[in-house]
Amino acid sequence: MARFCDVALPVPLDQSFTYRFEGAEPAVGVRVVVPFRQQKLSGIVVAVHDSPPSVEAKLILRVLDTEPVLNEQLLELGRWIAGYYIAPIGEVYRTMLPLNAEFRRAHGYRITERGQEALYASAEIGSSLRAKKDTEHQMLEYAVLNHLADGEVVREQSLRSATQASREIFRTMLSKKWIDREDLSAVRDATRTVSVAALKEITGKINANQEAILLALKAAGGRLRVDAMRDLEANGKPVPRSTLSTLVKRDIVEIVEEPAGFRISSLKPRKLEFLFTPAQQDALRFINTGVDSGKFTSALLHGVTGSGKTAVYLSAMQEVLGAGRSAILLVPEIGLTPAVAADLHEVFGEQVAILHSGLSDDERAEQWHQIRRGEKRIVVGTRSAVFAPVSDLALLIVDEEHDHSYKQEEVPRYHARDVAVVRAKMAGATVVLGSATPSMETYFNAEKGKYALLSLPGRVQARPLPEVEVIDMRLEFQETGHESVLSRKLVEEVNERLERGEQAMILLNRRGFANFVLCRACGKTIQCRNCAIALTFHKRDRKLMCHYCGYLAPVPRTCPECHSEHIQFFGMGSEKLEELLHGAFPKARIGRLDRDTVRGRDDLENILTALHHGEIDLLVGTQMIAKGHDIHGVTLVGVVGADAALGMPDFRAAERTFQLLTQVAGRAGRGNTPGKVLMQSYHPDHYVVDYAAKHDFQGFYEKESRLRSWMHYPPYTSLANVLVRSDRVNNALTWSGLIGKWFETVPHEGVRVMGPAAAPIERLKNDYRYHFILKSRSREQLNSVLRALIAFSSAKKIPRTAVIVDVDALSLM
Ligand SMILES: Nc1ncnc2c1ncn2[C@@H]1O[C@H](COP(=O)(O)OP(=O)(O)OP(=O)(O)O)[C@@H](O)[C@H]1O
Ligand SMILES: [Zn+2]
């Protein structure tokens, strides 16, 4: 008889753990709470069996669900992710389930007898007993003991904020046995419900208070949330709470528990106010046919900017909903503004769940339950929405499939686009990857016939793509005799738009004011304390900032190295460009869009709305301005430093720059007036600039494809980046050395290994970093070498978190 189950726990270990259970057998896919190394963890049951493990199995503490939270298909998808991305299965399942709100890990401390004695002693004799020790440390210990004196358990969080004690203090106090640590992890109800009063039959005499409740119930169609009845009045006085209980006792009303947020409403199909172009119709027909076939179908929808891809997605999704099935639309981080959400509600009514990063844990959990119960059949969301537990999945769409926000840059390092394809395959669904600038991988797959290629080659309403002019900034320098940020042509064209009441955008893909601070006397640039990165000067905040770890430093008056006063600011960011534009166009209303001006979701919305309403004439910003915005008044786009990123030591630099240039150019001329683009460049004959200027995706793809093939880079090989990191440089060196030796001695046929080498960013967030790049034409060989590598590291006692395996890495930095 089955008495054991294997549980996947959210710990950085590539295995599941066996526990014993008593009583009813838990189903595979439910959550359980188990003891794990002095703490309680919540994990997923992945198997139930009767074979006892070699060491005695501990008992499961609690089963959290009556039904699986991960069905067989999602469990399988998780196994695929763990295998493909070499990620611990428990961490994969944790990522797939946004239910953190329902199991909170926490711990606290309680004073021991020995602690009470120490507290007493210190009050008696003062500090002389422990005078040798650092007095600050001692004061903190005393403060902690004092706070715990009444013997209650106090959460670490509150203890720390009350006493300012660090983890180190707790650690030493634990080792002296002055305090005990206790696990306070708590389970909250998995399904949120609300109490609803439902009208049954009215019999007998009814008084005024009772009548007030019954009237409210009738007005609401016989059902009303109990908490909504609090404000009811009869004869000018509030209705007492006991009245409802009386009605329940008399069997006139009953109280039922219903899932929170549950509302039934019918779909009101929205009429599209235009006719589809023939290309849109063809694409839609292909998608609908795929959905109807019930077989796995995959397509790339390659449509130029402004070709009406979104309309195709929405139409296909309405079709799916009409058939009573489900669809998921993935959008990049920045695509989900409140305005987009409002549109989606208009099209899909109550049936759409919108999952964005602004949701609280509770809201996210609630949406998740609604989706799983089948109350929401359309899901729109960022990366992790690919795991939405919809029933009867028919269609998965990945909008702007080239966008890097689909890659999770922490464990598990999955790419939501690729997971979407795999999930669709498992579900027999249709998957559509859409973009004006498809990634090299996706276009390669389409070329090979792995995905069908659907194209929308022109803009809607036969609007032309904008004319692009490349401005050679070397000539500009020769002709004007000085270095300028804005070319004469750009200034002239912006002025023209301002005079005509049209709008312009200027892209400079770097935020801040000055991107490095240099001492003229000793030549040192000021670096981040935690990273090998130059700090950026932010003028409005009067701070130096690290764009990698967020470290802030005051602006120094003298050089920290040589104390000279010759500190100077160099380079140009969007904040400085904005200041410059104010000088050049004093009458223009200028807005800025970057991560410094967009801190909350409302900020983005406000800027875009102002642009929509013509309240901004000129918008300057980073790549955020290039993303999907459909603003009809914009007729000019300027690009400052078009090729700045081409010099990065990264094989995707060309692809990324091409995408950025094409996307930003695509913001111009989306209304009735044709658009124009000015690209300022110091390398005007670079193929990336050239193909972007000609709107020639095909040309770019072919050229880039040849280079990738010669250099053995994706999509021609599979690539993984293995990063070895530690906050101690010696560990990082020793471990990467060990792994390097191991590669020399073990056979790794078909897999090329480069490294160890210092990572391009040698130190990041306090860690020293070395890396290996592995390439192979065979995915299987690559992954088996990676698995062997993980086993070797664990045998050598290298911490699992010190070896980061990034399969299909997007960034090698
Ligand atoms: N057939 C059509 N006729 C007229 N207008 C259309 C048609 N299809 C879509 N539109 C409108 O054209 C505009 C651009 O469409 P949409 O935003 O879907 O383009 P897109 O291909 O997603 O662009 P991008 O890739 O640049 O984000 C929208 O305002 C949309 O409502
Ligand atoms: Zn830093």
Automatic annotation (TrEMBL):
Residues 290-456 form the Helicase ATP-binding domain. Gene3D superfamilies: P-loop containing nucleotide triphosphate hydrolases, PriA, 3(prime) DNA-binding domain. Belongs to the helicase family. PriA subfamily. GO terms for molecular function: 3'-5' DNA helicase activity; ATP binding; ATP hydrolysis activity; DNA binding; zinc ion binding. Coiled coil: none annotated. This is Replication restart protein PriA. Zn(2+) 2 binds at residues 528, 531, 546, 549. Keywords: ATP-binding, DNA replication, DNA-binding, Helicase, Hydrolase, Isomerase, Metal-binding, Nucleotide-binding, Primosome, Zinc. It holds the Pfam family DEAD. Its cofactor is Zn(2+). One of its GO terms (cellular component) is primosome complex. Component of the replication restart primosome. PROSITE patterns: HELICASE_ATP_BIND_1. NCBIfam families: priA. It is an enzyme of class 5 (isomerase). Zn(2+) 1 binds at residues 519, 522, 559, 562. Its EC number is 5.6.2.4. Initiates the restart of stalled replication forks, which reloads the replicative helicase on sites other than the origin of replication. Recognizes and binds to abandoned replication forks and remodels them to uncover a helicase loading site. Promotes assembly of the primosome at these replication forks. Binds 2 zinc ions per subunit. InterPro entries: DEAD/DEAH_box_helicase_dom (IPR011545), Helicase_ATP-bd (IPR014001), Helicase_C-like (IPR001650), P-loop_NTPase (IPR027417), PriA (IPR005259), PriA_3primeBD (IPR041222), PriA_3primeBD_sf (IPR042115), PriA_C (IPR041236). It catalyses: ATP + H2O = ADP + phosphate + H(+); Couples ATP hydrolysis with the unwinding of duplex DNA by translocating in the 3'-5' direction. The gene is priA. GO terms for biological process: DNA recombination; DNA replication initiation; DNA replication, synthesis of primer; double-strand break repair.
